[in-house]
Amino acid sequence: MCPSFFTARDVGFPIDFLAALRSRRSGKLLKTPLLMRLLAGTHSFHEKSGLWNGCCLFAFLVIQAAVAAGQAAPGEWPLVTPSPRLEWPVRGPFLIGAQFHDFQNYSNVPYLHGGIDLRAPVGSVICTPVAGPVTVSSYQIDAGRSPLRFQYRRWPFGSRSGGDTRYVEVAVTDAWGQTWMFRHLDAVSIPGEVLRRSRTSEPLATGTPLGTIVAWHQPVLPETATYHHCHLEVVAPDGTYLNPALMMAPLLDDIPPQVHGLWLVRNEEERVFPAGPDGWPVVDGDIDLVAAITDEMPGSRYRHSPFRVRTRLLALTASEPGELLPWLEVLRFDRLPVTGDRTQLATVIYKERVRVGEQVITSNGEMGPRFFLLTLTNGDRRRGYAARNALPTRALRDGRYRYEVEATDLAGNLASATLEFEVRNR
Ligand SMILES: [Zn+2]
After folding, report:
1. If you average pLDDT over every residue of the chain, what do you get?
2. Distance of CA 362 to CAs 114, 192, 365, 366, 374, Å?
3. Does some domain include residue 1?
4. How far is the CA of 114 from the centre of ligand 1 (A)?
5. Which residue, 176, 243, 330, 361, has fewest beta-carbon neighbours within 10 Å?
6. Is residue 184 domain-shared with residue 230, that is, in the same domain?
7. What domain range includes position 291?
8. C-alpha–C-alpha distance, residues 263 and 274, integer Å
9. Mean per-residue pLDDT for 246-270?
């Protein structure tokens, strides 16, 4: 289906033009994507939809041109929020097992999840929320710590024996070239018609059943129920991982994130600056701000990373009080990689551990309880991220300062915390 709303402010598109496109929206939407029909040489779509679909194609080309012209850098594929938003693929109730942006470190390999785990009973029907050509694959994950990597190896479903029968993926490519992947479907449940179309490239219509959720083999703690789930992942043509939650109907969530702690460490080090005699840490040189932030969803004991985090720095010294660094959106996980590889990025955004006196606090992204330490001074979405980035306190006057941190989840629930400290370089 044709998305009808752009988050254009992110990418510098001609917003007025897109608004004009929007206003021409026809009430009827295509049952199959225009691009595919054009490629297939068929022109049987409804007359009234023609104009709107032509606009969709044109907008798509505008996006492509913007990417090509460098206005939208690779990895900044514009996330399109359809209106109305799409239906979630699970027919029936489901819970979130892991969010798109959750830090994970199964097998001690740090990476960002990149998809959303939809927990639902075995046999729950999965339907495609978008129309387009379909592929069916088996796959395995190739992940390791040295060199740090997290990749998928795929082969056509049924083309060879062996492999993990839980690792079956049905993928539908929408009109924008975005590929919607539905993983952990029961191989025997995939309808014959879907398998047939995967060989002929005939498009599937929105809402077509793709199969049912396969039986998982174990729970993911702290939940003790077996972790039956469908992993939903959306990848743009330029390789950007998109957060599906921003394209789907909003989920009910009234639980705000929690900030468990804020600490300062020397750049890229683990030991936190201890509190001085006056009760606040005394720091010098290049420092990192590290935050422990988690979020929860109703009906589940899993913890997630916050969706968005912003910080600002205030000077508290009497001679020169005020806002030193205004609010900066440090993290917003509407896409991955923000810049660079998502595995490398995980090690820059997430901090593996901090040492608070004798206590060691660690990030945990596998069996629960999950816990997330985030470095908030390693960059932001526009400048990119690097471990060497820090707050250079030598550029500041000696004196007292306060970091303020705000974290929000996808529903906009807010948590905030502050940390006061003293800079003493001279
Ligand atoms: Zn998953």
Report:
1. 83
2. 21, 47, 10, 12, 11
3. no
4. 8
5. 361
6. yes
7. 258-423
8. 9
9. 97
What spacing in Å lies between the alpha carbon of 342 and ligand 1's midpoint? 15
Residue 181 CA to ligand 1 centre (angstroms): 11
The reported pLDDT for the residue numbered 38 is 29
- Does pLDDT of 65 surpass 50? no
Cα of 183 from ligand 1 centre, angstroms: 8
Domain count along the chain:
3
CB-based contact 290:374 (threshold 8 Å): yes
**Ligand 1 centroid – CA 231 distance (Å):** 4
Nearest one of 162, 164, 168, 109 to 134, comparing CA atoms: 168
Dist. CA 107 → ligand 1 center (Å): 14
Distance 220 CA to ligand 1 centre (A): 11
Instruction: Grade residue 75 by pLDDT with cuts at 50, 70 and 90.
Output: low
| Residue 54 Cα to ligand 1 middle (Å) | 36
Check whether residue 286 and residue 242 sit in a common domain.
Answer: no
Angle between helices 15-23 and 47-68 (to 10 degrees): 170
Domain boundary among 246, 274, 295: 246
Strand, coil or helix: 137:
strand
**pLDDT tens digits for range 297-336:** 999 999 999 999 999 999 998 777 799 999 999 999 998 8
Task: Assess whether 161 and 118 both reside in one domain.
Answer: yes
The torsion of the CA quartet 58, 59, 61, 63, rounded to 10 degrees, works out to 170
User: Using an 8 Å Cβ cutoff, are 206 and 128 in contact?
Assistant: yes
